[in-house]
Known about the structure:
The complex is a heterodimer.
Chain A: H1 6-15, E1 22-27, H2 32-47, E2 50-55, H3 60-69, E3 77-81, E4 97-99, H4 106-119, E5 125-130, H5 132-138, H6 141-158, E6 161-167, H7 173-182, E7 185-188
Parallel strand pairs in A: 1-6, 1-7, 2-3, 2-5, 3-4, 5-6
Chain B: E1 13-14, H1 19-24, E2 29-30, E3 34-39, H2 45-58, E4 63-67, H3 72-78, H4 88-91, E5 95-99, H5 100-107, H6 116-132, E6 137-141, H7 143-150, H8 153-169, E7 173-179, H9 192-196, E8 199-208, E9 211-221, E10 230-236, E11 239-244
Helix pairs in contact in B: 6-8
Amino acid sequence: MAEQSVPAEVSEKLSALSVASAVALHLKADQYFDAIQGLIDRFATKKDLEVVYVTSTIPSQSILNAMEALEIPVEHIWFVDCISQIMMSQAKRHPHSIAVESPTMLENIMLKVEFLLRKNPERSALVVLDSINSLAIHNNTKILSEFLHILVNNLRARGAYTVIISMQEYETDEIRNMLVLVSDEAVELGA
Amino acid sequence: MPAKERDDSERERCVTGIDAIDHILNGGIPRGNTVLVSGSVGTGKTSICIEFLIRGALDGENSLYLSVTEPTDKLLENVIPFDFFDERLTKQGKLQFVDLPKIYEELGIDKEDMDFKEARLLASRIASIVEEQKIQRLVLDSVTSVCYRIKDQERIRDFLLRLGTVLSEKGCTSLLVSEIRSTEEGYSRWGVEEALADGVIVTGNLERRGDLLRTLQVVKMRGTTHSRAKYVLDLTTSGVLLVPLLKGGSVAGGG
């Protein structure tokens, strides 16, 4: 039997979950863009979801460029970009991207997510947190756990899906424990 | 016998329309309360107050903004373009903006230093506008500027007591903006404002590891139980948004 592609695997595994689930998505670095494609182009499109994509790993423009190359429509995708400002890069920002000054401003990440969800209250949403590993570079475990706990519970109450991306190469025991605490499910690609 | 828990349903509420603040106050400001909104520059006091008035006007309550420090046309140019603002509110008179200097002029108050009589005259004039226009929500931005002209603490106390009493009697819920320096202790410039107000909402800046966060905290609110925790604030076109300030375990400053 042919091996399933990463985008198809992501979409299939997430589709099996109930609404408002919080999922820890464990992936390898070389599966990164394929996993994003699976999340957004397949899963979110299939479920007709508004996507709020919080990026602290790479600038939103890089993800947008990748989406353009993959011909993924961005009409229903909104970015909370926590990395471009701190890199002092890119004066012009995409209209679907909002900046948070630094990945240490965790409250502001929650506020921007809330703002974007309020913009489209009638649509169900998927919130992607990319990634727990990059947030852990800038924040200690205690404040990061508190952030995830509040954010995930808030999103769960709103009926939104939460996907927390975790790169297997950079996972520590602390990160794994944190994800176990806040997520309903753990999805490991290729497992 | 255990102490009787306070019943928050006892007093009618003025639902601010700012979801997070209504949540903090267990349903809104007790109607008729005079609330000090206190903070240093750039902490969101005026935005909170304007949203309070717009939300009220949208809900059918006559709302009045008394501007002391800034002419209203300039203020409106600089205010956040709220998505929910409807120009018809001002055209229909549901939402009114009045420059206080025009009232000073009308009352013949031209001295820099207001005496007892003039301060009382001003409180009466504001009360009569509230009565005539059936105002249910009022913002005075800022009470600090008015107090600067009254100067004397005893006269300030008299003015605020009169104003608070008549507004409360008329069921008008009011927000008085108090400008303080970031280094100042207390919640008002003259010290008496916070003691006389029914409620105190404090906005501020919190520096944490080089990040500057806007914060909001309800310190006092008569007539309701409320959260006294500190929240982080964002001023957006969808309105004022709040989330709890993260504490990072017991690590001071969130680590």
